[in-house]
Amino acid sequence: MLENRRVLAPLLIAPAVIFILLVVGVPFGWAIYLSMTDAIGGSLSGNFVGLDNFTNAWSDANFQKALRNTLIITFASQAIVLVGAAVISHYLIRDFRGKWFLRLLIILPWAAPVALGTLGWLWIFDSLFSVINWTLGHGLGIVDSTDPPQWLGRPNLALLSVIMVQAWRVLPFAVIIFLAGLASIPTEVDDASKIDGATGVKKLLYVTLPLQLPIALVALLFGIVFTAADFAVVYVLTQGGPFNSTQMLTTWSFQIGINSGSLGEGAAISLYLFPLLAVVSVAMLFFAKRAQVS
Amino acid sequence: MNQPLQGVRRKLPTYLVVVPFAVVLAFPFYWMLVTMFKEDLDLYNAENVPYVFNPLQWRFWESATTKHVEFLFEDTQYPNWIVNTAIVGIVVVAITLLFALPAGYALARLSGSWGQTAGIGIFLVYLIPPTLLFLPLSPVIARLGLQNSLLALILVYPSFTIPFATWLLMGFFKTIPQELEDAALVDGCSRIQALLRIVFPVSLPGILTVVIFAFSLCVNEFIYAFTFISSTENRTISSGVPNELIRGDVFFWQSLMAATLIPSIVLALLYNSFLDRFIKGFTGGAFR
Amino acid sequence: MSDPTSELDGHSSELSRSELLKRGGAAAFAVTMFGALPDKSLGFYGPLRYQGKQLSGELKILQWAHFVPSYDQWLDSTYVKRWGEQNDVEVKIDHINNALLFSTASSEVAAQSGHDLFQFISPPSSFQKQVLPLNDIVQEVSKKVGPMSRVGRRSTYNPRTKAFFGFPDNYAPDPVQYRRSFLAEADVNLKTWEDVRKGAPKLKRAGHPVGLGMSNEIDSNMMLISLLYCFGGFLQDEENRIVLNNGSNRKGAIEALELMRDIFRNGMSDEVFAWTAASNNQAFLAGRLSMSLNAISIARSAENSGNTGLSDDTWLASIPRGPVTRLGNEHVMGVYVIWKFAKNKEAAKKFLIDQQLGYREHFVRSQYYNFPAWTGAIKGGFKTIRAMTKQDTHKPRGKYTILTTIAEKYTTNVGHPGNSNAVIDEIFNRYLIPQMFAQVAQGKIAPADAVRDLDREAKTIFRKWRAAGLV
Lengths: 294, 288, 471
Hints:
By secondary structure, chain A is mainly alpha-helical. Chain A has 13 helices and no strands.
């Protein structure tokens, strides 16, 4: 009986599905319920208000800023990650002296627990003691050391800082996935391309990159998820400031739902993330299927 | 073995690309390394060079101090937090593999087109942020009597590692040629035997990748870690460090840097050796 | 550092490394994993024993990690132990970072389980429906030591529900801390805000600017709200109605905004928009800032750093006077709540009463950070407090006596002249006031428009909480 695909398949999948349904599904349902109430102060019930929380959020300028920022931060940082990882992994797959050590350095940002690594960046961007500003000011003399750039104090700089930290911590993750993908390219392809005379950049463009496409999409997809649903980086660096210019959906929903006590509203804001990521991931999975090289 | 100089010249483009990246990515850690040994008077002086110890001298250990690191290990519960984090990570990874391996295999091989949809479905579940989920999860944790216990985290973490692992493993299993299993089946193995004896060993690199990522997701998580556990001795490093080393408006920067650097290096070393294993695993794989 | 005698009795919330090794890894593993079994709650250290006898009750407290670590150490290993033994209650006290008080509280409310006593550092108006009204114990304390301070009452009493939703325990006055030598050299004084405006450019030129933040953090929040009071720009009136855009309030708020914009443009730099709560401390301790408004953590950190050149030169003063008044906020308002789901409500109430009645020791141990919410809790009231602050040995002698003056005359609650209600709570937690000042200072919006916008936003928030029945 266990040989029957139709029995075996659900049997193997069932444990995972049941676990997820219980741990995530039920609370998720509850959260949806909360988003349609006026619950406050941690209480898990309230009066039903229909879709009011969603429409109120939509018309709020801060929410729109948060939505925009989520998109900007995610796509900007992941663009950097994608290009960087593609380039690095291309060279890192080869053998050369010092490779183990250099690879170790490259992995470090991903190995740091995100809350702690971001605390390090908080100090790196500090308003007075920033090592970047010291280098630019005292070291290189490019900026005025009595009035250096405030990486977390001016809206566009703050946004840039968040993007840089996200790119920094996700890059090693993408490199690892790319390496896995590259390592799985059969040597026959490698040999064939050598015979055809495609080496170096040509090889990169015409052989490696197309073959890497499915893997690249996996890295991009997870990178997007890790960045768009991330809370720690913005919370630790800017708390969404200066004046809400770096809020993302996750931090804004925390601000409203927890710190201001409007739980129903916070839940609604959070839920805007779901369709956003769903659209992106379905689109990418679709392209991944199309791009699958058989 | 080539003469080093010739080898380096040929590999020059490699170094030109990799080294700058490595430097940029790792410089915060060098700087953390220096900061954690700095005296207060050295650190809180904006004029001082941040990359070395001041007053600058070759006997740098006379301008540096280990007292902040000692503070971290002796006057906070840091060793506890490390143990807690390790326990949670290891157990959750085991649970993840237990659920995700069969599920990933089933989705890759056995389920045809609805497998794709199920794959997307599992993945979507992953997209609900913990900033939303921690509140409805709190009564569940409380009712199970798991408040303030590591078991709360062990129960909840697989909820975001399993979908991710399943999806990743599904992808890896798909790259293994069907012929391998068919050969085993022809030889008289049952499907389950084929699974255990042929498929899993060959997909070891994929499994190792999942281990790395699942573990790192557990170490990174901090919202559940912070809200489900309130006693300092039961915390993990993600929640313990910000809690104890930031008091009101005083940040213990040197200890914070030490607290970050130590697990980062250990984990990076771990991941790096796993990477070796699975790259070797691929190049020595069964389909050559 | 745990003191030797407390180890003998088995309970300490500090764990030294040798202790950890002593207890053994396996035991640690087992107890840590299962440390929160319901009804037993052995925790990591095993049950508290008093002379070999197990204590019968249990009380769980959660509060912020005090910036003075020695206060927490004393509290955990001496005070609660002593109280617990005297009342036959095992007390477990946890400390968390103040930034995460609200999320932890929300989680406990959602779970309907957690600690018995929960201390916030700002009035937790949004949790009113989840807590016991504490009118009874408030009355009991008032009977014994006299009425509570105005700031305590306005922070915890809801006139609409006629209930005290929290028990005010302590507050921290908010003095100016300044470098006397810098100010003397630049010939600047801080008697009025106009003096500050005139003096800021001079101090900046001397390389020691003033430190008045406009960031999303507590110091900026408190200082700017106090500034509004001094100029008469009150957000709400005595009846808790939003009146910012009316008459004299509007005028006062606009003047305050213009003042800060002026000070920023001529006397400060961009850094004040990127500050954390620690930034002004750090900048002051680095010898850069000439003055800042902050609880006494700056002065105390200066003393602890061993840099007497700095700490002897650090003096305290009250907030500068504005055209309308001289008034400031408390920097921290310690309010305890008892959750409705608390398991040991009796012990919780007794703990609060006893703690307030014996507040003298807390006042001293916190290095004068914690002033009691009932001034009479220290026998002799402000007169005694002033005499106590005079005892401080740090130079210049008697510098902490000004704290008493500030507490007595110039400290009020956030939301003055109204209550610190849910509306104020939300405005405070969302940093709407620092944001308003920052936007005006950066030239992004005109003062009049900013005032109008904040008024409008505040009214929206007001409507929401009125609908919830809390204001």
